[in-house]
Amino acid sequence: MWRRVASSLSPIISSSPSSRSLSRNQAAFGLIIRESFATEISKPEEGAKSPFITFVLGGPGSGKGTQCEKIVETFGLTHLSAGDLLRREIAMHTKNGDMILNLIKDGKIVPSEVTVKLLQKELESSNSSKFLIDGFPRTEENRVAFERIVGADPDVVLFFDCPEEEMVTRVLNRNQGRVDDNITTMKKRLKIFEALNRPVIDYYKNKGKLYTINAVGTVDDIFKQVLPIFTPFQEVYTNLCLHFSSKCLSFFHYSDIRHIHLCLT
Ligand SMILES: Nc1ncnc2c1ncn2[C@@H]1O[C@H](COP(=O)(O)OP(=O)(O)O)[C@@H](O)[C@H]1O
Ligand SMILES: Nc1ccn([C@H]2C[C@H](O)[C@@H](COP(=O)(O)OP(=O)(O)O)O2)c(=O)n1
């Protein structure tokens, strides 16, 4: 099971020659490192880190995929779209392909076991440690199955809140040849979304993990609301760089521990 544990970079700091005579700034640097990594996620049984997970919720056409692209560009998270994984099963004619196609055509939700296993495979085969899981969980059943099978909780849950009229307009103009982008299926999808996704939204709201974004406006305006949600996860590293600006040759990337080590020595 994945679970959060406290961890720190103290072994790196103490093995560094310069750490024996820590200046004030360096001491502060150490503190920041410890604070930032106190919430680092790891898989204690194997000593490996467990991932930083963001779930992306919102009705069909609310702009989830569009905003995910921008989040990936800016923050380097790995994008996993539940819908894309299901469509890939259809395209590859796997044993579940036909069943998935029929459910999607009818605006229905694919059994959680199927979707979660696809996500699990991607999570486990990826080298990344930070994921953006788009279009999931769509139901309480999805959510519970993910917890049971993958054994992880999201760190952040984004909800793109969009009026139905706007979602219909966008989906009918999406023009990607999808079997579910037609008015008949769209009406069914909206009903299912309202009935089954709302409890998921409420669940994460009560857990204090939900970030509701007004999904009406230009793509850039909407991204302006998304940006500050992820920035704190990077800020720690910006602080590190400020403290060590004279020693850092370049700006290091979020979670690049090796680079931090280089800066220290
Ligand atoms: N802010 C926006 N305003 C207008 N159209 C948008 C906006 N964001 C996305 N779109 C368009 O709406 C359609 C649905 O967006 P998409 O990102 O695919 O939504 P979702 O992944 O939630 O179904 C796409 O054609 C996309 O280009
Ligand atoms: N968690 C999920 C995600 C998608 N599906 C199915 C049912 C959805 O209507 C389709 C398409 O999902 P997708 O997220 O690509 O759709 P939108 O981007 O919201 O328009 O896939 C599912 O059954 N379970």
Automatic annotation (TrEMBL):
CMP binds at residue 142. It catalyses: dCMP + ATP = dCDP + ADP; UMP + ATP = UDP + ADP; CMP + ATP = CDP + ADP. GO terms for biological process: 'de novo' pyrimidine nucleobase biosynthetic process; CDP biosynthetic process; UDP biosynthetic process. Its cofactor is Mg(2+). Keywords: ATP-binding, Cytoplasm, Kinase, Nucleotide-binding, Nucleus, Pyrimidine biosynthesis, Transferase. It is found in: Cytoplasm; Nucleus. It comes from the Eukaryota. Pfam families: ADK. Consists of three domains, a large central CORE domain and two small peripheral domains, NMPbind and LID, which undergo movements during catalysis. The LID domain closes over the site of phosphoryl transfer upon ATP binding. Assembling and dissambling the active center during each catalytic cycle provides an effective means to prevent ATP hydrolysis. Catalyzes the phosphorylation of pyrimidine nucleoside monophosphates at the expense of ATP. Plays an important role in de novo pyrimidine nucleotide biosynthesis. Has preference for UMP and CMP as phosphate acceptors. This is UMP-CMP kinase. It comes from Brassica campestris (Field mustard).
